[in-house]
Amino acid sequence: MHIGIVGAGLIGVATARELSRRGHRVILVDPEPLSGATHAAAGMLAPVAEVTYDQDDLYPLMATSARMYPDFLAGIEADAAYRTTETLVIAADAADREFLATLAEFQRRMDMECEVITTRAARALEPNLGTAIAGAVRIPGDHQVDPRRLGSALLAQVLQSGGEVRRTRVKAIEEENGPILRLAEGEDLRVDHVLVANGLNAAELVDLPIRAVHGDVIRMMMPAHRDHLITSTVRAMVQGRPVYLVPRADGSLVLGATSREDDLTGVSAEGVFQLLRDAHRILPSVWECEITELTARARPASGDDVPIIDRVADHISVAAGFSRHGILLAPIGAQLAADVVLGEGGNGPLAQSVRLGRFNHSPLEHSTRK
Question: Taking every annotated instance into account, which residue ranges of this chain make up the domain FAD dependent oxidoreductase (predicted)?
């Protein structure tokens, strides 16, 4: 089968590799591959730390995908970008400590590995943490990957297996004895099946309940006189606001991320100020770092933050709405998307949880937008 994938972010590229491995021919269509949310993402693989209340369908997807990651990365050059360093979650004040302790109890009831530790124990693990922190939770199984390196390695594999990339925009998808991609320069591209996986822009081609959640991210370089500021991923709650710091092997640090549903597509000055202020509260020496990059991207979120992976017409499928979990969910997302495209994989609980019909949509009644 010849499959056209609209969108070459991490989900599109990972699915292209999966389909290639199953013996199918793929072409990715994207004006700027790997330049969207994948480019901004910190790459925390955090099925425990990301758990929040009332998202029962999301937990099994996250846990399953995290377990798939070592095999997902096997044999690709991005292996070095995968780090099994643990995660610490820090409370800035007493209210944050109470929130984290209650959440940790909920996580343990779901058989997730986490441990409430003293602030002294947290500073023994990470000596540069601030002396005024109020509490900590240790999560040994939440790891990290560098999404930029991972995406590039996956795309290289797709090309090596005979896949193609067209650097252009898809204006519309139409069906005339099979699907046709109407490309921006006026050309038509015929394929056997289309997977729409271009993030927020998917809603321009297919009727989908997704929205933009913008996030600001700061990349920094640690000062030359320090070997490191932190070795673990450090997440924190600061007066109810989440913040994270992800250390890379090259001495860089990713600080993020705001979450805003506004009309500002560029970097928010308020967001940058908030991130730096809150990070300083947890890790005072962060102010010694050099800012090397400010990034803002829109995360495509569904109404319940669970992705939508489903057929919307006989020859058209979608994989969209991954919210802030796109990097973590890439392995399971690629598998489920390939199953949907090929009509394989059955109808188990994970497949059911990502169906469009949960929003009272009837997928096969939806026509593509023109």
Answer: 3-339
